[in-house]
Specification:
By secondary structure, the chain is α/β, with parallel strands linked by helices. The protein has 20 helices and 34 strands.
């Protein structure tokens, strides 16, 4: 690929390095455990080569409430099969509610202008009231409680009340259809369902209760439904079974929480795979591993402190909600937003940053690209004085988006592209406040995550060599199991089938000479023209640099005993794809990638199918093009878009 020499776009100022949590952490380790820890590289090596000492230090530095016990890990060499902190006892909610003062815990803002604030003291009281009512409902450790909720304070309160008992929380965003909810929650049989009466998006109000009635009918385990009268202050519950509004259900007389301390691996969350290739997998995460891993990431990699105001644009059906909520354990203020990030206009999120003085702002790579396409220049229109870190995930962040952030958003900001996912409820590649930001690169590999890039033959790739993103050592936030996977076969097939004893994450990647990482797209969507593997992200980067192209999706089509690259594009302003634009697309790909990246066919489409969390679904499109069934289309935000790709004449020759 013809790339300009990579250069640091941002270097942390000395004062920021000196005041960073990770600097203090390294100083403690240097004094107590290893005098050779002098920089991030040596800290990373320590975390990989001395995992027991490292994760014990994370427990201590994170101030985990509970008893750690003597043993850190048993059967560490087993992958999977290691047991972390086998003697430990803790409660997840107790750790997130460790602060009970009058600092702001939650600030909520909706696209309609609705706003509220809740202190840590108030949050504790609200959780106490709800937890007491759940106990009265007969909820015990191990029971499942579900949310069909927008990103509201009440969603967090319900999760904390659930996990304070030791019950297991699972949630779906209210923009999921009935089938999508039943496919997920039906597998785990929740006893209580929390839902909102309605929600808003892009200026429109959407009712939830009609769907909730059908969900109740389809999931027989639900014995109680608790309705939050959001948007609709007087919801009609007459057609629901055993339903109450939240204020009627909770016991405000209860003021204390009886936290149930349980083993380290006791389940806390059930998250779901996208479900575009079959029934979603119910990925079950343990309380201790989730807490410890996210404390590590937020304290050390993101540098969250009590004075920070932490925001991530997310729905409650995306693991970034679980990531965000863990910020309560740091004592920071969480800023929650419900609605479209582009309502009433493309600059809305920058208005929010200034209004709420957000210091750490997270969003998707697609949103940053959309800002760029909309020619939003907040550096000219907004203060952004409070903003110190910008996080991006969901898909690879292109080098051009790095340029856009530093030229048009803020020049003095730590731009941290991160990669991980629902499977590990955390990250393999992440940011670091004491390292430079290089164009197009994730800053570093996560501490304690023994990442290797594997070749097809199972060998480890060299620096700058592409291959499969893998992890060769156990880590605490591996799923404890998949719900309903009695013999573990689905779990094993998901991560360990390709390379026995090694976690294969499903991303095509390379480690850079700076110790960072570049992601080229999902490896299961990797293109193989002529037997040479190339990543789809390399094509998207070039195509979407053209002003005429809003977005694109690329697949490999089986053709003449080989695979040919097919590119679908959605254009702006009702433009029509002509030969001249096709030639320009091919030229920019050829010049800036390689001839193998150049698509054999370029086809215009009106829409691109994506999941509820906004990820494009290359495999679903590939299956449609090849005449195969796409299972569980209810996992898509716009399932009707798939029909656009069926029987296209452009793909018959």
């Amino acid at each position: 690929m013809n790339e300009p020499a990579n250069k640091a776009l941002w270097t942390p100022p000395n004062l920021r390095v000196q005041q960073a949590n990770i600097t203090r952490f390294m100083q403690l380790l240097r004094m107590e455990r290893d005098p050779g820890i002098v920089d991030y590289a040596s800290l990373y090596q320590f975390s990989i080569h001395s995992p027991k000492a490292f994760w014990r230090a994370i427990w201590e530095f994170g101030g985990v409430i509970g008893t750690a016990g003597v043993r850190v890990v048993e059967d560490f060499e087993k992958m999977p099969g290691a047991t972390w902190f086998p003697d430990a006892r803790l409660n997840f909610a107790e750790n997130l509610l460790r602060y009970r003062d009058d600092r702001d815990a939650l600030v909520f803002k909706s696209e309609t202008g609705l706003q509220s604030t809740m202190t840590y003291r108030q949050l504790y009281r609200e959780v106490a009231a709800l937890a007491d009512s759940l106990r009265d409902q007969g909820i015990e450790a191990g029971d499942r409680i579900a949310g069909y909720m927008p990103n509201l304070p009440e969603t967090i309160i319900a999760m904390l009340a659930t996990t304070s008992i030791g019950a297991i929380w699972s949630s779906c965003s209210p923009d999921f259809g009935i089938e999508g909810v039943v496919d997920r929650l039906g597998q785990i049989e929740p006893k209580v369902l929390f839902c909102a009466a309605a929600y808003t998006y892009n200026g429109k109000q959407h009712d939830c209760l009609g769907r909730v009635r059908e969900i109740q009918n389809r999931i027989g385990s639900i014995s109680k439904t608790v309705v939050i009268p959001y948007v609709d202050p007087n919801p009609d519950l007459g057609k629901l079974e055993n339903a109450e509004c939240l204020d009627d259900f909770k016991n405000d007389a209860a003021t204390e929480i009886n936290f149930n301390r349980l083993p380290f691996n006791h389940p806390v969350y059930i998250l779901y795979s996208s479900g575009t290739t079959g029934v979603p997998k119910c990925i079950t995460h343990g309380a201790g591993g989730t807490l410890l891993q996210l404390l590590k990431e937020q304290l050390l990699h993101v540098d969250v402190k009590r004075d920070d105001r932490l925001f991530y644009y997310t729905t409650c059906g995306w693991m970034m909600w679980n990531w965000l909520v863990n910020g309560l354990a740091t004592g920071a203020t969480l800023v929650l937003y419900e609605g479209s990030p582009f309502y009433p206009d493309a600059a809305s999120m920058f208005d929010l940053i200034d209004e709420q003085e957000i210091s750490i702002f997270g969003t998707s790579a697609k949103t940053i690209s959309a800002w760029q396409k909309s020619a939003v220049r907040p550096a000219e229109s907004h203060s952004l004085k409070s903003l110190k870190t910008l996080l991006s995930t969901g898909s690879p962040l292109s080098p051009e988006s790095f340029d856009y952030v530093y030229s048009n958003i803020k020049s003095d900001v730590c731009l941290s592209s991160i990669i991980g996912g629902t499977d590990i409820v955390s990250c393999f590649g992440i940011g670091c406040p004491v390292l430079p930001v290089y164009r197009g690169e994730i800053q570093c590999l996560g501490l304690g995550m023994a990442v290797e890039i594997c070749r097809d033959d199972g060998g480890f790739a060299d620096v700058e060599e592409t291959g499969e993103l893998c992890c060769i050592q156990s880590f605490p936030s591996m799923p404890v199991f998949f719900w309903g996977d009695e013999d573990g076969s689905k779990y094993h097939a998901a991560y360990f089938e390709k390379y026995p004893g090694i976690w294969a994450h499903g991303d095509f990647a390379k480690v850079t000479k700076h110790g960072g990482m570049v992601i080229f797209g999902r490896s299961d969507a990797t293109l193989n023209p002529g037997g040479v593997r190339i990543g789809t992200a390399e094509i998207y980067r070039q195509v979407e640099s053209l002003d005429e192209v809003l977005e694109s999706i690329c697949i490999g089509q089986d053709w003449d005993d080989d695979v040919r690259v097919v590119l679908f594009v959605r254009l702006v302003d009702e433009l029509i794809l002509n030969d001249e634009l096709k030639a320009r697309i091919r030229k920019v790909i050829r010049q800036n990638a390689t001839p193998r990246h150049v698509p054999a066919r370029i086809v215009q489409v009106d829409d691109i199918p994506r999941t509820i969390s906004g990820k494009i679904v290359e495999l679903a499109v590939r299956n449609i093009v090849h005449g195969r069934e796409v299972k569980n289309v209810d996992a898509l935000a716009n399932p009707e878009a798939l029909a656009l790709y069926r029987d296209l004449p452009e793909l018959r020759s």
